[in-house]
Amino acid sequence: MVMRTLLCLCAIALWTGPRSAAATRQAVLSAQAPHTQSVTCPGYVAGNVSQTGDGFTAELTLAGPPCALYGRDIKRLELGVRFDTKNRLHVHIKDSDGQQFQIPHGVIALDPGYGVRNASSSLWFDYFHDDSSGFGFRVSRGDQVIFDTVGHPLIFEDQYIEVTSNLPANANIYGMGESPDFFRRNPANTIKTLWNRGSPDLLQQNVYGSHSIYMELRDGLFHGAYLHNSHGMDIVLANSTIQYRVLGGTADLYFFGGPSALDVIDQYTELVGRPSRIPYWALGFHNCRYGYKSVYEVNSVIAKYSEANIPLEVAWTDIDYMDRTRDFTFDPVNFPLAEMQKQLAYLHERGQKMVLITDPAILYNSSYEVYARGHAKDVFIKNTDGSEFIGQVWPGYTVFPDWFAHNTSSWWSGELKRYFDQLPIDGMWIDMNEAASFCTGSCGTGKSAGSVPPYPWTLDPQPPHRIINSSDTLLVPPYAIHNREVELSDLTIETTAKHANGASEYHVHNLYGHMESRATHDFLVNYRPNQRPFILSRSTFAGSGAYVSHWTGDNSATWQDLHISIASVFDFGIFGIPMVGADICGFFGNTTEELCARWIEVGAFYPFSRVHSALASTPQELYRWETVAEAGRRALRVRYALLPYFYTSYQRSVENGWPVARPLLFEFPRIPAVADNDRQLLVGDSILVSPVLAEGATSVVALFPAGLWYDWYDYSVIKGVNGNVTLSAPLEHVNVHVRGGKIVPTQEPAMTTADSRKGDFEFIVAVDEHGAAAGELYVDDGETFDTASRWIQLGYAGKALRIRQRSGKFKIIQPLSKLVLLGVTGISKVVVNGSGINASLKAVNGSTIVTDLDIDLNVETLIAFS
Ligand SMILES: *[C@@H]1O[C@H](CO)[C@@H](O)[C@H](O)[C@H]1NC(C)=O
Ligand SMILES: *[C@@H]1O[C@H](CO)[C@@H](O)[C@H](O)[C@H]1NC(C)=O
Ligand SMILES: *[C@@H]1O[C@H](CO)[C@@H](O)[C@H](O)[C@H]1NC(C)=O
Ligand SMILES: *[C@@H]1O[C@H](CO)[C@@H](O)[C@H](O)[C@H]1NC(C)=O
Ligand SMILES: *[C@@H]1O[C@H](CO)[C@@H](O)[C@H](O)[C@H]1NC(C)=O
Ligand SMILES: *[C@@H]1O[C@H](CO)[C@@H](O)[C@H](O)[C@H]1NC(C)=O
Ligand SMILES: *[C@@H]1O[C@H](CO)[C@@H](O)[C@H](O)[C@H]1NC(C)=O
Ligand SMILES: *[C@@H]1O[C@H](CO)[C@@H](O)[C@H](O)[C@H]1NC(C)=O
Ligand SMILES: *[C@@H]1O[C@H](CO)[C@@H](O)[C@H](O)[C@H]1NC(C)=O
Ligand SMILES: *[C@@H]1O[C@H](CO)[C@@H](O)[C@H](O)[C@H]1NC(C)=O
Ligand SMILES: *[C@@H]1O[C@H](CO)[C@@H](O)[C@H](O)[C@H]1NC(C)=O
């Protein structure tokens, strides 16, 4: 959702030209961040090396007089090098005194690996001494140096750590965010600032989440690096280097040897946590808007989707449903609980679902029981004087749960239980958890709770920016990261605010959404012990994929944002949160019929597929225009046919971290032309979507890697030569191709995922130049944790399809009744396990459709064609 008029105006102001605050911010940045080379820092000297079975430790001592670049140089450091696994190397440089803040293990339980001898590692570590810059190290994989700090002094101060590594010229770098940007980061000029911020999606700015992992592609091979640190930071690509500028903590680095993109993500998610299992229904199509006036209006939206024959799986409602925008309440006039209960029952009867929004900010008013109970249990973030920190969010002045406090998760669970007991919704949407506030500092302290006018209120023009105590280095750290606000504390919890573990918000700000995600997930798995939760979170951190899914926040209805959405979905694939999508048709601004039609043609292939718009935007439910409805029906028909394939791909995420939506680059790393391709997307490794991303276009130029690519709709084939092909793309049509050499499981699409699951299985066998193909199918009950499961391996060669059982005992009820043999002709006979059967055969455009099969998918079977 959800930036109201006030922030919406501010977004537009930033867009169209500088306003005074933006100008002030620039001044502040240039005044405070003179990153000059005129101060030379001495670096460190390594000594006292001590071998361990799986690495070594050493001491680092400051090599000269402190440079005090942005704080106090720490004189003695400890270097720990550990070969965690065969393909993961951990390099941790920390202060010997252990005073610097580190992410508690309880917040993110990193996988320790098993520890290997250096000889068994694919990565190698060397360190060096350079007279001008001191200690430096190199991480290599074979002959390739993949991280190289030699020649760049390590700077390690209490509020500033700088680590710089050399990159090749014009390096291919991916990841680092969250920040809307083109997928391949500009190696000459990129600053990714990690400071969670509840702002609209403006190009290249810091937004809701923090993920410091990056991947690099070099000579067809990938490797990755992750800095485990919750502080604000800039990661800078310039001058053939990558430079981390971090506001505290330690230099806690992990390196991943790859060598494929999927390997890097596998190694990263093994460390920070694998993506959570999701219910099958989450893969259906979702509708939302901010600004539904009543439960009756939402009822009518649900009915209109059905009348328009567009599959609606989940009906969402934004903050509109709440009583005066207070959490866990229902507007007694427009969204009365009894009517919400009826809507939920209606949806459930029809196999549909409901998801509602919740914010972490709690109205500060002792007659609001949610607040009163939390206050009694002492669960809210504090000012330095021990009073509650009071910001301002939708309901007025608000307090913020402190996820570090002992009783917060039990209080949160208690509130959620009361809410779910009244209305047992299917999933949760947790928003505004950066945490967003509409003012700066504890603006409600000392004010009467009633002095904020009731929602919707206006606050425009904005008051002049406050004057802060610039010698308080928690408020104004000596190095100013490129946060796009005047202060770090703007529009969020003040950096000096205190958490129950003693940490200031300064150190843990970026963890807020992650910790709320985990607490919410914990509640749901306790409340419904064997049901997989579905939670959508706006703010995330490394490892959040283990608890939540994500949407890319408040984008705009522009053609550029349509394009960028693909890159953002790829980014979250790297971040280990594969269930991700952007607001289809755009959130802010008024979409157009053409843009919305083109957007659903992309959005139908986002792993998480939801249309959503802002309060002031014209309505954009898919049925509003006939072309959009038709584009939606067609594209969603492809998605729903592919549900078994999406689900199998998602299970690959759960087991190996592999993203569902992938750039061509991940599958074809040796084709230079795909290094910056974020205009096409692969679903899994087999389905290529080549959408139109430009206004007025009725054709699209798309790259086809060498091999055969079969048109989804008419089976015509493109012989790819690693070059561009121009495809016809009328408004209601999105180009989808099946990759030769792959087998894709499908089911007949229906209006809900539950009904789609009831259909017979059909396999698309798309042969390569050698007449061969392979694929897999994963099936389970789609709901529970302790479900039986089944992995099936599919192989086609020599005109025979072999169905092999790899693992699991889940009983598949539906038979395989149809095969589409793409690129296979000249068939007149079908033999199953040696016995001829009377299947129907039909030749279409160089392919053969085989129907009237009745194959049990729970057993091994050989189907031969001649
Ligand atoms: C090595 O350890 C000794 C004893 O702990 C200490 O005095 C010395 O400064 C250390 N040397 C270096 C280079 O860290
Ligand atoms: C590798 O391990 C051996 C044995 O522990 C040790 O002697 C050697 O210095 C190590 N080499 C590196 C580069 O860590
Ligand atoms: C890149 O090099 C130029 C010229 O030496 C320098 O002015 C600039 O600050 C450098 N940029 C970064 C990010 O280090
Ligand atoms: C927190 O909960 C514990 C028991 O779970 C209780 O003993 C303690 O008093 C509570 N703390 C506060 C501040 O309410
Ligand atoms: C708190 O809420 C109550 C009930 O809605 C309201 O009457 C009262 O004015 C509020 N208190 C303050 C201080 O705003
Ligand atoms: C400003 O901050 C410094 C450092 O925290 C503190 O010592 C000083 O008292 C503050 N000044 C005021 C006016 O609050
Ligand atoms: C969107 O359209 C509405 C009318 O439907 C109009 O009031 C509003 O100003 C438009 N918004 C923008 C950003 O153009
Ligand atoms: C066969 O493919 C061509 C395009 O190559 C297409 O025009 C035609 O409609 C297709 N035929 C069928 C039956 O789908
Ligand atoms: C393919 O087309 C894209 C977009 O028009 C262009 O940027 C790219 O250079 C082309 N690639 C090749 C290999 O021709
Ligand atoms: C196939 O059809 C023929 C003619 O209808 C019938 O005689 C034969 O038994 C059928 N074979 C099988 C395996 O069903
Ligand atoms: C095919 O043969 C295998 C044994 O090779 C058997 O387990 C399986 O049940 C048979 N499948 C069918 C569909 O008869």
From TrEMBL:
<feature type="domain" description="Glycosyl hydrolase family 31 C-terminal">
    <location>
        <begin position="657"/>
        <end position="744"/>
    </location>
</feature>
<dbReference type="InterPro" id="IPR025887">
    <property type="entry name" value="Glyco_hydro_31_N_dom"/>
</dbReference>
<comment type="similarity">
    <text>Belongs to the glycosyl hydrolase 31 family.</text>
</comment>
<dbReference type="InterPro" id="IPR000322">
    <property type="entry name" value="Glyco_hydro_31_TIM"/>
</dbReference>
<dbReference type="InterPro" id="IPR017853">
    <property type="entry name" value="GH"/>
</dbReference>
<keyword id="KW-0378">Hydrolase</keyword>
<dbReference type="Pfam" id="PF13802">
    <property type="entry name" value="Gal_mutarotas_2"/>
</dbReference>
<feature type="signal peptide">
    <location>
        <begin position="1"/>
        <end position="23"/>
    </location>
</feature>
<keyword id="KW-0732">Signal</keyword>
<feature type="domain" description="Glycoside hydrolase family 31 N-terminal">
    <location>
        <begin position="141"/>
        <end position="233"/>
    </location>
</feature>
<dbReference type="GO" id="GO:0004553">
    <property type="term" value="F:hydrolase activity, hydrolyzing O-glycosyl compounds"/>
</dbReference>
<dbReference type="Pfam" id="PF01055">
    <property type="entry name" value="Glyco_hydro_31_2nd"/>
</dbReference>
<dbReference type="InterPro" id="IPR013780">
    <property type="entry name" value="Glyco_hydro_b"/>
</dbReference>
<keyword id="KW-0326">Glycosidase</keyword>
<dbReference type="InterPro" id="IPR030458">
    <property type="entry name" value="Glyco_hydro_31_AS"/>
</dbReference>
<dbReference type="InterPro" id="IPR048395">
    <property type="entry name" value="Glyco_hydro_31_C"/>
</dbReference>
<dbReference type="InterPro" id="IPR011013">
    <property type="entry name" value="Gal_mutarotase_sf_dom"/>
</dbReference>
<keyword id="KW-0325">Glycoprotein</keyword>
<dbReference type="GO" id="GO:0030246">
    <property type="term" value="F:carbohydrate binding"/>
</dbReference>
<feature type="domain" description="Glycoside hydrolase family 31 TIM barrel">
    <location>
        <begin position="277"/>
        <end position="648"/>
    </location>
</feature>
<protein>
    <recommendedName>
        <fullName>Maltase</fullName>
    </recommendedName>
</protein>
<dbReference type="Pfam" id="PF21365">
    <property type="entry name" value="Glyco_hydro_31_3rd"/>
</dbReference>
<dbReference type="GO" id="GO:0005975">
    <property type="term" value="P:carbohydrate metabolic process"/>
</dbReference>
